[in-house]
Amino acid sequence: MTVGEMLRRFFLVDLLKGMWVTFRHQNPADLVTEQYPLQRPEISDRFRGQPRLMKDESGKVLCTACGACALACPEKLIKVGSVRDPETKKKVLTEFDFDLGRCMFCGLCEEACPSDAITLSPEYELALYTREGMELQRPQLENGIERKVYEK
Amino acid sequence: MIEYILGYLHSDVTPGEAGNLFWVTVYVLLVFLGISIGVIFMNWFERKVMAHMQVRIGPMRVGPHGLLQPIADALKLIIKEDLMPSGADKIVFWFAPVCVVMTAFCGFIVVPFGRTHAITDMNIGVLFMLGVSSLGVLGVIMAGWASNSQYPLMGSLRSGAQMVSYEVAMCMSVVSAVMMTSLVTGTGTMSMIGIVQAQEQQHMWFAFSFFPVGLTALGVFAIAMVAETNRAPFDLPEAESELVAGFLTEYSGFRWSLFFLAEYAGMMAVSAIAATLWLGGWLRPFPHLLGGAAWDTAFSLVPGLGFILLGALCLFYTARMPRLRSMRGNLIGLAGFGAFLALLGAFMLLPGVRTRVQDIFWFTIKVGFFMYLYIWYRTTFPRYRFDQLMKIGWKFLLPISIGVVVLTAVIGVRQELLALVWR
After folding, report:
1. Residue A150 belongs to a domain
2. What's the 3-state SS for A88-142?
3. Is A28 a member of any domain?
């Protein structure tokens, strides 16, 4: 043991250093806690949350009912229903079911989509008391889920 | 009767010395109330300070900034079911928390909050306090034994060993302070009030007498008192990761809260000894360097202004609070609390009040410093192993404290002899 080390141990330098660290962290600017319902975290745009069907400027749904997302989904939770328009000979989307309860938010549907219609939006408050509300239909996917806002 | 009550107000001694039973009772109740409020405040303060040191915010919801949290906790504890293990020794199990609380509060009989603000003055004040506070270990051992359970027994045995071994180093450093009282006047004293008066006469807090010696004694005491009160980093008797909750394992509800009360009261008692012996008790900073009537008046304004500042701070934070309907209760509460503090401060500025209050204020500040130190230790240091604890006590603190005693004696005698020669 060198003299310096002995002096350091005798005068408890390491302990005092530790005390200085804890003292310094009392600065309120260091706080990391968020008071969740009052303060909300800023979520990155790339966060994969609630699925949405996007529309173009005219309000028409971008989905071409090709079914690529349903094929890509590892959980097979997407159901795409369509009818063929007799005049234009194109598929028209009739229903789009998305079972959120089984979704693991992998984002493969998003990647598979050729027309950028389905996206996982950064909306993250998806918890429900029952499984019933988990099966999303077209209106919820297009307009977002309406949540009841509780006021004290 | 009324003359008997009012007659004391003109005297300049503690009610115990004056032999006035009425005022003794009043002081006992006041001290009990004050300590209980102190414990409630310490509970909140500890959680808040620890939270901030760990970059959290701590209690926030019950009352503004969690100010009412300890009261809510106390209510919860009282409502909780009070369990007693079937194999427990009923009488001892019942008596253990009572014993711990009694010993923790008994020490406050001699604590001088000011020249006249003590219940009584004993000529063996320090000895009494140390003796009574170390009786607390009896209650702890009773609790551990009566619980009829392994963890409490282990915890209480550890506690016994720890308190006994740290008592020695603690008392040695106290001896050095008691020796210092005899320096100028020639007559040493163990009375708590006498020790503070000796520091006044020597124009020096004992922490700074014989420069490194007094400070070392204080340092030894500051470490030993943490072990003595079973607090982190020496909280082996209730080491959570090893012994569940040590001697508290089988206690719940009101009995548990009594142990809690006793722990914090004990911390305050030991801090009060440290503040009295080394930091000049109720004396304001620099009573001689900044002496004179003008400075006296200036310093006597500090408590009142301090409380007004605290009140203003509360009002400032009220103004910064978000205007939410759910926060309205907190808003009104914090504003009311701020106004109450400011009014209290204004009351303390009255000439008659401020001369009486300032002693208590400075004493409380000094005790508060030690209480903060407790929290600071607890957040910073990890718990010691039991053999390390014993090693620190016997191989490190005890030799240092004995050395301090010897050094104090040698330097003191040399100083007295030199004074004789020069005269």
Report:
1. no
2. CCCEEEEEEEEEHHHCCCCCHHHHHCCCCCEEECCCCCCCCCCCHHHEECHHHHH
3. no
Residue of chain A minimizing CA distance to B51: A26
- Shortest CA distance from B321: residue in chain A: A38
CATH number at residue A101: 3.30.70.3270
Tens-digit pLDDT profile for residues A74-106: 988 888 888 888 888 888 888 888 888 888 989
Q: pLDDT tens across B352-391, in order?
A: 777 778 888 888 888 988 899 888 988 888 888 888 888 8
For residues B259 and B297, the model is more confident at B259
Of B402, B398, B378, nearest to B390 (Cα)? Answer: B398
Sheet arrangement for strand A91-99: A78-84, A91-99, A135-136
Residue ranges per domain, chain B?
Answer: 2-283+356-422, 293-349
What's the CA gap between A72 and B110, in Å, rounded?
A: 80
Domain total for chain A? 1
Structural domain boundaries, residue A99: 51-143
Q: What is the DSSP letter of A55?
A: B
Question: What span, in angstroms and rounded, lies between the C-alpha atoms of B53 and B46?
Answer: 10
CA dist., res. A151 & res. A37, Å (int): 11
Indicate whether A8 belongs to any domain.
no
With CA atoms as reference, the chain B residue closest to A17 would be B380
Average pLDDT over residues A45-72: 86
Residue B60 is nearest to which of A28, A35, A152, comparing CB atoms? A35
d(CA A125, nearest CA chain B) in Å: 21
Contact B326, A152 (CB under 8 A): yes
Partner-chain contact A23 B49, CB within 8 Å:
no
